[in-house]
């Protein structure tokens, strides 16, 4: 599951990394773009569904393995370097 989260964060970073956006615009874009079904490129039996009510459901072989809440944030504990970083928390 950790691998899926890393893939998602990297994909989002590459998708929006080339646009000149303010931190708030980028954050709002991430909140919108994360919604939907994400399937692991290297193993299509691993799927994560992000909903607009901040629920994350993890499926393996179409079996629900975990349901949790997620949050996108501009800080992570004391980490924030004002370089448009967006952190994924669950």
Automatic annotation (TrEMBL):
It comes from the Bacteria. This is Uncharacterized protein. It comes from Polaribacter porphyrae. The lineage of its organism: Bacteria, Pseudomonadati, Bacteroidota, Flavobacteriia, Flavobacteriales.
């Amino acid at each position: 599951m950790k691998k899926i989260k890393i893939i998602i964060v990297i994909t989002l970073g590459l998708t929006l990394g080339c646009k000149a956006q303010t931190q708030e615009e980028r954050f709002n874009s991430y909140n919108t773009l994360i919604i939907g079904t994400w399937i692991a490129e290297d193993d299509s039996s691993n799927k994560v569904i992000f909903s607009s009510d901040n629920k994350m459901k993890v499926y393996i072989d179409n079996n629900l393995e975990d349901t949790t809440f997620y949050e996108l944030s501009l800080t992570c504990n004391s980490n924030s370097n004002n370089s448009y970083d967006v952190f994924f928390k669950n």
